[in-house]
Design goal:
Blueprint lengths: L21 E7 L5 E2 L5 H9 L9 E4 L3 E4 L5 E4 L5 E5 L2 E9 L2 H8 L7 E6 L3 E6 L5 E3 L5 E7 L11 E10 H7 E5 L12 E11 L2 E8 L7 H8 L5 E5 L5 E2 L3 E5 L4 E5 L3 E7 L2 H6 L5 E3 L2 E5 L1
Parallel strand pairs: 14-21
Antiparallel strand pairs: 1-3, 1-8, 2-10, 4-7, 5-6, 7-12, 8-9, 9-10, 9-13, 11-12, 14-15, 15-19, 16-17, 16-20, 18-19, 20-22
Length: about 300
């Protein structure tokens, strides 16, 4: 006799969700939460994607073009007299593939082994996660594994399309369904929810009292001088930290050098960490969607 209570009500409400084609992910901290009563989901996500603090920022990754179900079957054991017992449910394991390009692959590979949270984003505009304990928020899945399993640089000259693929283990299949919750946005557009582009500062020249620094995208070598020559020639868009004292130092001047396609930063003598200003400050100046690295320079 099985005395477990395995039943429940079987009615279904008017708001239900069929199987979804996943178009992308949003990588988030483990403690992330999207309030169910969010009036403008697209605006909420856009603000999270551009946060200055990397630890609380959301990282969108769209462009999935293929899915393969590699989920496990339930595991069962059988005793000698033929009695069968389900030992555990199978895990839900999916591989999602992106068309290969070098810069896209670089952004995907940095999430290999991701151990924080993810939201799944469907082609119908649903954000899929789990219920919070108080049922007021959608919180992220915490995958058992998130691995980059394919990245094919070389074209074989055939009709095969090269991919960058990720394998995601979302754990127990039945628990996944029990926990899954969703929120819908009618204007959610992956093209408008792009992640920040990394730019690298490079020391191109050095003279008494100043240094020349170029601002170039990390992949593709696009020089932002061509687009933001005027905007970046502003003292407020550069951040200098004195390496000895840790104090922030305001540059004496910043000028655009057309011949070198770089920016001349003048400051008192000293050793500095140099970066562009925070994401929000750049955006206020009309330079939207970029974040720079930090380099070490010495001004004599």
């Amino acid at each position: 006799m099985d005395c477990k209570n395995v039943g429940g009500n079987t009615g279904v409400g008017t708001c239900d969700l069929k199987s979804q084609r996943i178009d992308g992910f949003i990588f988030v901290p483990k403690n992330a939460a999207i309030p169910k009563d969010t009036a403008d989901l697209a605006a909420f996500l856009a603000a999270k994607i551009k946060l200055d603090n990397k630890g609380t920022r959301y990282y969108p990754l769209f462009g999935v073009q293929q899915a393969t179900n590699n989920s496990e079957e339930a595991q069962s054991g059988t005793l000698g007299y033929g009695f069968s017992v389900k030992q555990r449910n199978g895990n839900s394991v999916m591989q999602w593939d992106f068309p290969f390009s070098i810069c896209k692959a670089k952004t995907i590979i940095q999430f290999d082994g991701w151990n924080q949270g993810i939201y799944l984003v469907s082609n119908e505009g649903y954000i899929i996660g789990k219920n919070s304990l108080d049922k007021k928020d959608i919180v992220p899945f915490l995958p058992q594994q998130f691995d980059v399993v394919a990245a094919d640089l070389f074209n074989l000259g055939s009709t095969d399309v090269q991919i960058t693929g990720v394998s995601v283990n979302l754990g127990d299949k039945l628990k996944l369904i029990e926990q899954a919750q969703f929120i819908k946005s009618d204007d959610l557009d992956g093209d408008l929810l792009q992640g920040l582009v990394d730019v690298e500062l490079n020391l191109t020249a050095q003279a008494a009292g100043n240094v020349d620094i170029s601002v170039i995208t990390k992949c593709g070598d696009v020089n932002l001088f061509d687009t933001y020559q005027t905007e970046l020639a502003a003292i407020s868009l550069w951040k200098l930290i004195n390496k000895t004292t840790g104090a922030e130092v305001v540059p004496t001047s910043v000028t655009a050098d057309l011949a070198k396609k770089s920016f001349t930063i003048a400051a008192p003598a000293g050793s500095y960490f140099v970066s562009l200003a925070a994401v929000s400050v750049l955006e206020e100046a009309g330079i939207e969607g970029y974040e720079s690295n930090q380099i070490s320079v010495t001004i004599s």
